[in-house]
What we know:
Layout: H1 5-11, E1 18-21, H2 30-39, E2 43-45, E3 56-58, H3 67-78, H4 90-97, E4 102-107, H5 111-123, E5 130-132, H6 144-154, E6 158-162, H7 165-174, E7 179-182, H8 187-193, E8 201-202, H9 206-217
Parallel strand pairs: 1-4, 1-6, 4-5, 6-7, 7-8
Antiparallel strand pairs: 2-3
Helix pairs in contact: 4-9, 6-7
Amino acid sequence: MNFDLSTALAAVTPGRPLVVSDADGVLLRFTGGLERWLNRRGFVLELSSTRLEGAVKRRDDGSPLLEVETTALIEEYRADLDWLDAVEGACAALAELSRVANVVVLSNINHRQAVARRRNLEKLGLDFPLIANDGGGGYLADKGAAVKALAARARAPAFFIDDIPSNLADVAKSAPGVTLIHLAESPELRRLVGTGFPAHCHAADWAEATRFILERVGS
């Protein structure tokens, strides 16, 4: 299977609106799955911000893990991840949007992780082109270049949906004509992130994001 940009570009129909969505935390309940996974291993997740460092603690004494320990756990968690639940409303929303728009999933994962991510998405009926946007930068890889190329191919209204403000900022810089939508997997995470960053829509859920897009493509 190919998870590169060129394969996704070939699947984009020019002249048709474009929706580019992140996977973890937007389509898939990454943090919710992580919490369950950690609990089975004797840890708890106590988020006070969007950073995981210091948020993973031992259940027996409440002591936080070192950053290197947290990083190792997250890498183990992501190694073969194909069982995450869908974010509420995501499957119905993309089914509706795909009737009027190209849909592409853009995730900052490597190609090995993308195989499991593809299985997960297909199980949920989210069978759309998937780009493994590793780019040597791991979780912090810039999504701007990929979205810029996809939007140039579409030559139509383009929308980018992500839960991480820095990803939205990267796309705003590289592809200023793309409409930015912030959406996170849960109300708790939305409260932690807040709204103090640029986005054309801070969506409470997939229903709001879908209405916002459809209104702007005239459907």
